[in-house]
Amino acid sequence: MIKKEAQLKKRDLYLNRLIAFQDTELVKIITGIRRCGKSSLMRLMVQHLKENGVDSEQIIQMNFESMEFRKMSAADLYQYVKMRMPDDKKTYLFFDEIQRVGDWQDAVNSFRVDFDCDIYVTGSNAYLLSSEYATYLAGRYVEIKMLPLSFKEFLDFHGYEVKEKQSPAGELRKRIYDMEGENYDPKELFEAYMKFGGMPSIADIGLDADKVLALLDGIYSTVVMRDILEREKRRGQRQITDAELLRKVIMFLADNIGNNTSITSIGNTLVTEKLIDTDKRNGKPAVQTIQAYVGALLKSYIFYEIKRFDIKGKEYLRTLGKYYIVDIGLRNYLLGFRDVDTGHCIENIVYFELLRRGYDVAIGKIGDNEIDFIAVNAKEKIYFQVTESMNDPSTRERELAPLQKIRDNYEKVVIAGECDNPVTQDGIKIVKLTDFLLK
User: Fold this and answer.
1) Residue 161, beta-bridge partner list
2) Which secondary-structure segment (H or E) carries 119?
């Protein structure tokens, strides 16, 4: 029996980005960690096309994780699609996990040149767009970077609705309602998001810890085994061969999200644990080995690196960047559900929320102080501090101090997990975390 498709949940943020490039010559390439919703986004785009007058015969869909297409070469792919194209109508081509086809870019480029078609592809690692693959597509594609669910999407996927109610004092406050009409404070649902994370498939199994752990274990194993270790083996590379060393690097980065981290500091820890040898010439950890392992994790979209920017000197710094994990639920799976390091976990969530909203993000340095995030897009620049609480006066003073040192007129915001008095102080906005995420 053929598997029936589940009802699709809307991901309007990404769907609108795809629609904006519909019927352009650019190849639309959707990237992101496995199971973050790339295939569903393609199906949403197909649904959009059909709802707007495109016939089914104009749409060709192929998922290269299916055995039907597993052994296809680029030449096979070209012939398969060519035979199915209608003669006198535009064709819409959807290729899922196309990195499994050797020299896929040759076929895609030929479709672009030879036929009247609109092309959409997905891939689960950044090798898809590296120079070794995408030479022929240089300047001819747009990348749609997909992430797991935001807090707002998490609520929608799990059947919750956000409403604003006026308090007796006249303030507007957000309440969240389930399908039975039961209402919750946003903080209650945020705690669930902070625990389980935003992988879309969690909505299919419910917020049960054992089931979620099993699901996250499957995602993690697929990313590590298929997208990193197996891929290196297929390419004939010998840099990443030690599964235990890879696991230790992952654990180190997961345990140090939001901390200033260098390749050397990772190496020193691994040397202490006797997982890696020192360079015989200088007695230091083998930097190239660590860089290769960290690079593979970045290319599989499980970790993201953020650079430091000197606000006064107006230049990026080469030392001590930070790493954040793409989904906080994956971190909990790796390290265990523990109520520690809440501040850095909140930072992690805010960082990816800023990416979703289209900002380029850096860490700010001003003198001896650090600004958690500088968020920039074509229209604005905003400085952000992120903290667990702003209720203690000494914490309040500490979080405001770095922003007060910045002399330009760009917007400055403190995002606080706990904040009894969200106000504007010295031109600096203080906002509750859940209000920011639900904005």
Assistant:
1) 177
2) strand 117-123
Class of domain 341-439: alpha beta
Q: Average pLDDT of 7-33?
A: 95
The per-residue pLDDT for 172 is 78
Residue 269 vs residues 163, 198, 243, 249: alpha-carbon distances, Å: 48, 30, 17, 9
User: What residues does each domain of the chain span?
Assistant: 12-145, 149-305, 341-439
Take residue 252 and report the two structure tokens written for it.
């180190």
pLDDT of residue 233: 61
pLDDT of 388 reads: 95
- Tell me which amino acid residue 29 is: I
Give residue 432's pLDDT.
Answer: 95
Among the CATH numbers 3.100.10.10, 3.40.50.300, 1.10.760.10, 3.30.1360.30, which is that of 12-145?
A: 3.40.50.300
Cα separation values, 309 from 78, 257, 317, 336, 370, Å: 46, 18, 6, 33, 10
Nearest to 427 by CA among 411, 438, 415, 439: 411
d(CA 247, CA 157): 31
CA 302 – CA 34 distance, rounded (Å): 9
Residues 161, 176: Cα–Cα separation, whole Å: 6
Which H/E stretch holds residue 134? helix 131-134
Residue type for position 17: R
How far is residue 224 from each of residues 55, 139, 241, measured CA to CA in Å?
A: 39, 30, 11
- pLDDT, tens digit (0-9, with 9 covering 90-100), for 203-241: 999 999 999 999 999 999 988 877 788 766 655 555 688
pLDDT average, residue stretch 12-39: 95
- Between 115 and 131, the higher pLDDT residue: 115
DSSP secondary structure of 308-328: EEETTTTEEEEEEEEEEES-H
Q: Amino acid identity, residue 243?
A: A
Res 96: pLDDT = 95
CA dihedral over 345, 317, 415, 33, signed as positive or negative? negative
Q: Is the pLDDT of residue 268 over 90?
A: no
Cα–Cα distance measured from residue 349 to residue 196, given in angstroms and rounded to the nearest whole number: 12
